[in-house]
Amino acid sequence: MKTFSKITGFATLSLLAAMSLSSCELEYYKEELYRKEIFLVSGENNIAGQEFEYGGDEGILAVYASGTTAVDEDVTVDLALDYEAIGEYNQRNFDTQFDEYAMELPAENYSIDPMSVQIKAGECEAFCPIHVDIDNLLPDETYFIPLRIASVSNYMASQTKNYILFEIFRKNDYATTKEDTYYTMTGTSQDGWVIDNIFGSDVKRQAINSSKQVLPLDKNSIRMLPAAKVLDDKNEIRTASIRVTVHPDTWVNVPVYSEGVLTGEVEVMQKVTLAPYLDSIDALSVIPSPDEVCSYDPETETFYLYYCYKLSTETVWHEVRETMTRAEY
Question: What pTM, to 2 d.p., does this model score?
Fold first, then answer.
């Protein structure tokens, strides 16, 4: 009986210890579950962004309080620029691939006033407005506004989501930088010469087709490479690119062909003009066709382009007739 009492007593103490441990773990779990942390909403690499239209646009930065219940008192969250975040991001992701580095959005291209936001008692979120002007930004660069939580009046800032790289995507009616925008192109190309803006050739016209990526430049313009040309180097792309501008208020009559023969009918479309992307001696030369008018059909999202071009490193001209229709993904 004496031995049984010792064993029973030991078991009872062990059970009480286990119960006590479980109680501590439960309290710790509850503390973790209900603990309020203030954080900036973002995804992988603490990146979040929005599309902005040209001419000035408004975006919002989301600030949240974690936990299963709303805050029980007002929380003021002060923000500040994080001058190290972009450098760390570039070094971590691209190392010495400097052409891939992201850039800080120039100060003149945005405003955040005030640089603080308040989460009201009984709520768990607040939004900070950001006014952004994307005009004159380079189309093939990544732009961030790097922000950090400088201080919170109550609770505590998250240790991992206390900063954000707010990415600035640009868009117009024809393209966006949020994802790659492609057009399906079919057409023909012919090599020859140009005299007094008139193209001549003694070789056969060749069929061309490709999936062409385009980028927005301003409210009504996109950038593209001519014909089916493909390049990888950013500088080469810029010197070889064409600015395609839609004039939505100018409508033109476009002759209708059927199997290569004029039908006598016309379709009304928006006028399109072409120009080199860069104003530089290294830029390509481009001449619109004197016989065909370039146009855009907004209903089918299709460009009809007729032009001659010559790269600055070439002596041969290329006459191009191409139809580009926006691809669906």
Answer: 0.85
